[in-house]
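The protein record reproduced below.
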Amino acid sequence: MLSDLFDHNVRWAAARRTEDPNYFDRLSALQRPEYLWIGCSDSRVPANVITGLEPGEVFVHRNVANLVHRADLNLLSVLEFAVESLEVKHIIVCGHYGCGGIRAAMDGHRHGIIDHWLQPIRDVAQANCAELSRIAETEDKLNRLCELTVVGQVESLSRTPILQSAWKCGRPLTIHGWIYGLKDGLLRDLKCDCDSSAAKSRCDESFAPPVNTFGSSRKTS
């Protein structure tokens, strides 16, 4: 019942004041987290709880399957505020194994408007079809896709004008890709960090001149 939520809240607030009489005074005075968390809406993956952080220590954005749509004004507004106003130092894109959004994207059934939202997952699957086809078990394949999707969102996030501008201004800001295990409660680093140097290197590579694969050019008279 809804009344239970209010009862829980009263007990929680009383416990916080007992532990620290100045808890709410300090919390209400300033919000200056070092972390922006972009995670899944799944109720089993609460950012504060699984990282052991207190309220005020992590700024949170959540959506189905922790996706980065670069035309999503909700996400972009959160990102801009976190980067430019809160001046976070770390952005964490965190997925989780057993993600219902990943499964829905790949089950071949129509689910409604969310099919459009989940399209980036299918794009990641197509881009990595060779690797995924070598995985025999369906659950293992879906879990690997969970990981690959996080990696893809880190890259997509790094290409936003908000991040590009922050790095150009010399901001010490790093994007991380993590995955959470529902069965063991542990976070795992996917080793796909992206900072200003990594982004610049990728940009330089994309503008590199094409390699001449046909030997030396013939001289013209």
Observations:
- Residues 138-158 form the longest helix (21 residues).
- The beta strands are 35-40, 58-63, 90-96, 174-180, 187-189.
